[in-house]
UniProtKB/TrEMBL annotation:
<protein>
    <submittedName>
        <fullName>Class II aldolase/adducin family protein</fullName>
    </submittedName>
</protein>
<dbReference type="InterPro" id="IPR036409">
    <property type="entry name" value="Aldolase_II/adducin_N_sf"/>
</dbReference>
<dbReference type="Pfam" id="PF00596">
    <property type="entry name" value="Aldolase_II"/>
</dbReference>
<dbReference type="GO" id="GO:0005829">
    <property type="term" value="C:cytosol"/>
</dbReference>
<keyword id="KW-0479">Metal-binding</keyword>
<feature type="domain" description="Class II aldolase/adducin N-terminal">
    <location>
        <begin position="7"/>
        <end position="183"/>
    </location>
</feature>
<keyword id="KW-0456">Lyase</keyword>
<dbReference type="InterPro" id="IPR001303">
    <property type="entry name" value="Aldolase_II/adducin_N"/>
</dbReference>
<dbReference type="GO" id="GO:0019323">
    <property type="term" value="P:pentose catabolic process"/>
</dbReference>
<dbReference type="InterPro" id="IPR050197">
    <property type="entry name" value="Aldolase_class_II_sugar_metab"/>
</dbReference>
<dbReference type="GO" id="GO:0046872">
    <property type="term" value="F:metal ion binding"/>
</dbReference>
<dbReference type="GO" id="GO:0016832">
    <property type="term" value="F:aldehyde-lyase activity"/>
</dbReference>
Length: 210
């Protein structure tokens, strides 16, 4: 179980890096077990050579249980989310460039509702003002942790939560995909078009049935 989870955390982080959602030394990914152990990517290790041996195991207070490396510097935000949200089993933090640009420039303030998938996975989205990484970012996130599954911090990046690593990563990917679509509309000289509210309800109803 632990080894499998460590492998999934390392693979997931590599995926975010390979998809240009984070630079080699940026971003972090973690997963939590039912008994309160957290597996998180290390601080300062290049993402392209990450393996399960690099993943650090900590408890919910941040004490290292196993691993040779130092846990990510964003550990306080991951732990805050796990302590506050018992439904969350994975947290991804990346720097999706289009999403960060839109949020920082004031074009992304609420769920943009540009695609059905985004309606479903990003409907609990918050944008926060910049706070320095580490403890200060965790303090900022505490204000939005119960109302959001995706939190974008201006001039920095996004934190996403999920029931699984796959879901947390998908939320980052969908955030960036929706942001690219908004960008392209702006480049075409159009203000982003939203899916009408009555159809948003219909989309949510449709997904509920499947
Ligand atoms: Zn970051």
């Amino acid at each position: 179980m632990s080894l499998e989870l460590k492998m999934k955390v390392a693979q997931g982080m590599k995926r975010l890096y390979e998809r240009d959602l984070v630079s080699s030394l940026g971003g972090n990914l973690s997963a939590r077990t039912d008994d309160g152990r957290v597996f998180i990517t290390p601080s300062g290790s290049p993402k392209w050579e990450l393996t399960e041996e690099d993943i650090v195991e900590v408890d919910l207070n941040g004490s290292v249980l196993s691993g040779k490396l130092k846990p990510s510097s964003e550990l306080p935000s991951h732990l805050l989310i796990y302590r506050e949200r018992t439904d969350v089993f994975a947290v991804a933090h990346a720097h999706p460039p289009h999403a960060v640009a839109l949020a920082t420039a004031g074009f992304l303030k609420e769920p943009p509702h540009v695609t059905p998938e985004e309606v479903l996975y990003l409907r609990r989205l918050s944008v926060l003002e910049f706070a320095p990484p580490g403890i200060k970012t965790a303090q900022a996130i505490s204000s939005a942790v119960h109302s959001s599954d995706v939190i974008v911090v201006k001039n920095h990046g996004a934190f996403s939560m999920g029931k699984s690593i796959e879901e947390a990563i998908a939320r980052i990917e969908i955030l960036e995909e929706a942001s690219k679509i908004i960008f392209m509309q702006l480049l075409l000289g159009r203000l982003p078009m939203r899916i009408p509210d009555n159809l948003v309800e219909e989309i949510l109803e449709t997904y509920k049935k499947t």
